[in-house]
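Lab notebook, bench 4. The sequencing result for the construct came back, and we need a structural model before the next group meeting so we can plan mutations. Quick request posted to the team channel:

Model the 3D structure of this chain.
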Amino acid sequence: MTKKDIAIRALKTFVQAFLGVLVPEIVTILNGGFTDVSTAWKALSPFIASALAAGISAVWNIVLAELKT
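Done. Here's the predicted structure in token form:
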């Protein structure tokens, strides 16, 4: 597995996690939820969750690639 493959997998994980986190947040916001949380946090939390998931995916794939060599 090359670095390009790992980057593509991490990007795909980012998109999947972002959409998976964003959709429920939009529904909650539209229903009047999160009134005590700042707007910046509401805007950034899907990106933070997605970045964490992508980082975990990248590390996992790097470890698997190193174990195969």
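The chain has a mean pLDDT of 79.
Will bring this to the meeting.
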